[in-house]
Amino acid sequence: MVLLLRYGEIHLKGLNRPHFEKLLRDAVRRALTPYPQAKVSRGTGRFYVTGLEDSELPGAEAALRRVFGLHSFSEAVETEKTDDLLPLKEALAEMAREWMRREGRETATFKVETKRADKRFPATSMQISADIGGYVLEHVPGMTVDVHDPDLRLYAEVREKCYGYTGIIPGAGGLPPRSSGRAMLLLSGGIDSPAAGYLIAKRGVELHAVHFHSFPFTSEQARQKVVDLARILSSMTGPITLNVVPFTEIQTKIHTDCPPEMMVLIMRRFMMRIAAALAGAQECAALVTGESIGQVASQTLASLRVTDCVADMPVFRPLIGFDKLDIIALAESIGTYETSILPYEDCCTVFVPKHPLTNPHEDRIAKAESVLPIDELVQKAVAGTETFRVTP
Ligand code: ATP
Ligand code: MG
């Protein structure tokens, strides 16, 4: 059995293609480290994984489903490429018989779909499909053809060698890890920001993360929860550099010196400034947050504008058009949800005013916060930041 791996968009990358392929191959190898005898090789537009025992396939496939850049994969039988394709036909007929046994079927319909990547091979895809179909009709009792809605699809590929398979397993999609630069994720302990980080990392962006911690208003467990979330993310994104920023002094000062209805927005502007400073120092090209329009007062369009404008780099919000239920479904599918809902306080929930502004004016916010020594507070927070790498 060989695993045939397909990689979506890499073929679009022109001269960068070898680089993307190398990054993807490295990621596949990393995912398969628990299977040291697995061998990853490259064909045209495909990777092949050989050397896995049948009993290892479910584990290996679960690991591969988390590799960004892999579009889909299949468990295939590899056969020699002969003119009559007999080995391939026999293999597919055996797969069909095996499927009938497994499903406990007496009769079933099938269809053959062929890809002829080797354009020197004389027969066309259509001719190959018809030829294989005829062989299966003759050799697998109970099977008939239905080209519109078959019970079983038999796939044939004619490449360096021939490959036959019956199923296509979807991969994570996206682009290979570390193929698209680096960004700084504002990572709270909530449901949204890990999901936002996932979507950005899926496009090949390397993640750094920053968390604002307000000890003793927020507990050691709240901090640990964020480390745990970064760890879960890192199993898909690769190692994450996590910055934990001491935020207590800033929060306290805003609380005592600024109008309560502006508290959250001023706090978020400080977060943006500090995140941007750390991002600059760590060569990140953008900030990423888990905000979506209208979810809370600080996420109205007017509020987003007021927080956006203090960052001197692009701020990406990949969840901007998501409903909360969609975000929850995404968080569940990537495995962060259970950790996110653990009941520890977040710094944004400490000192939350009853009536936060939903239609703030930049000038008024800027005036209100100008009573604080902004640059000094930002520099002090950056200097007090603890930075470490989180690995799976
Ligand atoms: P989340 O589920 O991500 O916490 P949320 O709906 O609770 O989001 P807010 O608390 O308003 O929303 O935060 C909006 C965004 O600001 C978060 O998605 C995150 O990117 C960032 N953020 C909020 N609190 C923190 C924090 N303590 N540390 C780092 N980033 C934060
Ligand atoms: Mg939150």
Quick take:
It contains 13 helices and 15 strands. It is an alpha/beta fold and 392 residues long. Strand 10 (182-186), helix 5 (192-202) and strand 11 form a beta-alpha-beta unit.
Notes on the structure:
40% of the residues lie in helices and 20% in strands. By secondary structure, it is α/β, with parallel strands linked by helices. Helix 6 links the parallel strand 11 (206-213) and strand 12 (240-246). It is elongated and about 85 Å long. Helix 8 (263-281) crosses helix 9. The chain binds adenosine-5'-triphosphate and magnesium ion (MG). Adenosine-5'-triphosphate binds at residues 186-188, 190-193, 210-212, 289-291, 295-296, 298, 346-348.
List the helices and strands and how they pair.
Blueprint: E1 2-6, H1 17-31, E2 39-43, E3 46-50, H2 57-64, E4 72-79, H3 86-103, E5 108-116, H4 125-139, E6 143-145, E7 152-158, E8 162-165, E9 169-170, E10 182-186, H5 192-202, E11 206-213, H6 220-237, E12 240-246, H7 248-257, H8 263-281, E13 287-288, H9 301-308, E14 315-316, H10 324-334, H11 337-340, H12 362-369, H13 374-383, E15 386-390
Parallel strand pairs: 5-6, 5-7, 10-11, 10-13, 11-12, 13-14
Antiparallel strand pairs: 1-3, 1-4, 2-3, 4-8, 4-9, 7-8, 12-15
Helix pairs in contact: 3-4, 5-6, 5-10, 7-8, 8-9, 8-13
The structure holds adenosine-5'-triphosphate (ATP) and magnesium ion.
